[in-house]
Every structure is written in structure tokens, then in C-alpha cells.
Amino acid sequence: KNLSQIYEKIQREHQISPGDFPEIKRMQDQLQHHDFTKFNILKPRLLEAVDKMLAEDIARLMAMIPVEEATASKESNIIRGGAFDGVMNDNTVFGYGRGEGVDAGSGEPEWIVAKDRYKYDQLFDNLNPVDGKVTGSAAKQEMLKSKLPNSVLGKVWKLSD
């Protein structure tokens, strides 16, 4: 009945992004067949164990995945020969995907971030940096405002360290 309010409460209390929750309607359909009196009480100790696993254990496991597998699967999807020969050529500004995504601004005389940097400098300064660094909790609070799933936020966090 009040699942949306429960979602909001959990989001606030545990700082979970809305994107990490299942669709409300589907969840309501599944939950209507359960007896809530038989559910166990939430144990904070278990949540701490999951947080530790996500922060440390998963990162350690991901580091164990061989890099060769990742590059081999990427290379197998590239079309070779014929009309596609040279399309991926990085030596020309007309190459496939040039000037887009992570390549945006390449070849420009000015750093692409410079035109909007004042916004981000102001945001950073509002986080009260000390010696050019912000605390982890301040960074986390700001990142949570993006409403991105925790899986994405975790990757951004790793890149920023």
C-alpha cells in the first residue's frame, strides 16, 4: 500500500539511489503474496557486511579478472576488411567516433572542460576542501545527488582515487 513511502525512507536512511530499487508496481505484485509477519528483522550487522563486500571484496575480485579476456572480446567484435578498412583510423579527425564521447574536444586548442570549469570549481569549493582534497563523506553526499546506481557510483569513486 505505501511501498513508495517505504522506498523513500530506505533511500534517505541508507543513502541508496532510486535507480537501485525495483519498479514499485512489479514489487507490489510480488509482495502481495507474502506474509510479512514471517519476515526477519533487518540486522544492521548484515548491512555492514554487504557494504564491506561491495567496497572491498568485489573490487579485489574484479582486479583478478584477466585483462586479456576483456581486450580479446572487444577485438573480436571489430569488423575487418572491405569498406570498413581504416574506419577506426585514429590518424584523422574524420575517423569513426572522433570528437565524440571521451574523444570530445580532441584537436581543439583549449581543454574541453575549461568552458564549464567555473561551475565545477564552485561546486568543489562548496565541499570545503583541505589542501585540495575533500573528505570521502562530502564526496559521497555530492555523488548521491546524481541518483546514479551504486554500481556506476562505485566505478566513478575508483577512478577518482
TrEMBL record:
<dbReference type="InterPro" id="IPR040990">
    <property type="entry name" value="DUF5600"/>
</dbReference>
<dbReference type="InterPro" id="IPR000261">
    <property type="entry name" value="EH_dom"/>
</dbReference>
<dbReference type="GO" id="GO:0005886">
    <property type="term" value="C:plasma membrane"/>
</dbReference>
<dbReference type="GO" id="GO:0005737">
    <property type="term" value="C:cytoplasm"/>
</dbReference>
<dbReference type="GO" id="GO:0006897">
    <property type="term" value="P:endocytosis"/>
</dbReference>
<dbReference type="InterPro" id="IPR011992">
    <property type="entry name" value="EF-hand-dom_pair"/>
</dbReference>
<dbReference type="Pfam" id="PF12763">
    <property type="entry name" value="EH"/>
</dbReference>
<feature type="domain" description="EH">
    <location>
        <begin position="116"/>
        <end position="161"/>
    </location>
</feature>
<dbReference type="Pfam" id="PF18150">
    <property type="entry name" value="DUF5600"/>
</dbReference>
<protein>
    <submittedName>
        <fullName>EH domain-containing protein 1-like</fullName>
    </submittedName>
</protein>
<dbReference type="GO" id="GO:0016197">
    <property type="term" value="P:endosomal transport"/>
</dbReference>
